[in-house]
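Example record

Each entry pairs one chain with its bound ligand, iron/sulfur cluster.
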Amino acid sequence: MQKKKIAPRNKTRKIYVGSVPVGGGSLISVQTMTKTDTRDVKSTVRQIKSLQKAGCEIIRIAVPDIEAAKALGSIKKSVSIPVIADIHFDWRLALEAIKQGVDALRINPGNIGATWKVSEVVSAASDRHIPIRIGVNAGSLSKKLLAKYGHPTPEALVESAVEHINILEQLNFREIKVSLKASNIPTTVDAYRLFSRRFRYPLHIGISEAGPSFTGIIKSSVGLGILLAEGIGDTMRVSLSADPSEEIRVAYEILKSLGLRTKGANIISCPTCGRCEIDIRGLASKVESRLKNIDKPITVAVMGCAVNGPGEAREADIGIAGGKGIGLLFRKGKIIKHVEEKELLNELMQEINK
Ligand code: SF4
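Structure tokens for the complex follow.
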């Protein structure tokens, strides 16, 4: 049976954040932000390295003051993934971040102030081939736009992005990436849709302030899932009030579920029903935890019974189906071995490691 495909990716301009291509059909990159005090170089570097291990491809770092901006050079020298400096308003911080060797900036040119200040930042970014992300956020729209639209509508978000884009284009700068985030999902989705009908600039997608793990994962999966399924999005960040490595894991699961990236295990497990005679919940969570750090793409099924198990999980590379006191090990829907229940997990892992 041919697998159903999602919409083709939107054709956007390709830019580079360090060595990572964004847009133009490149793989959708996964990024997040550090949650340490940027001035604490040691902790920040430690967090970035552990995030990279989890699959983070681009890291964004908040730069609240000049001390944080000056720390970027040491951080940059100690890590191997591209670093984006996240700056609000202060052009001096942007200039210092560029001097310290960052790979990209997130700054809204319309918030910098006097034209000469914007010009200085743009010319420094141009000289070093550093892209700028315009990050429009529903929570920080200008008073003028709020007065015009009443509240942060998709149109207001897009108009805000256009104002920032115009400033950069007037300075002949086009290494631009855009995000249009709101915590409200329909608003965010519509804003990205509207924008991508008009512009080819690559898009950083995300649901702002999505919440703590449980609700945040659901909101991010729904919002980002809709966008990605419509071909919108070139790089993504899941925002959770949780450990940032959780954000990376969730981002990959969303991409994997749509067939946009392959990474590590894709686990299929049945919900169980009255036919189930073994502890599938326990087994599935043990399998998930054992496979948490594997990189090779593999689909593993953990099914409750042999009646429907192997058949339901035909697409799986390997799997188990519970029986009475025993389990069946199967590969691509075909049973290859009978295994005692207590040995199921070990046998499955051995088969995967082969
Ligand atoms: Fe029920 Fe078997 Fe389907 Fe699991 S695989 S839901 S136990 S029928």
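Residues 154-170 form the longest helix (17 residues).
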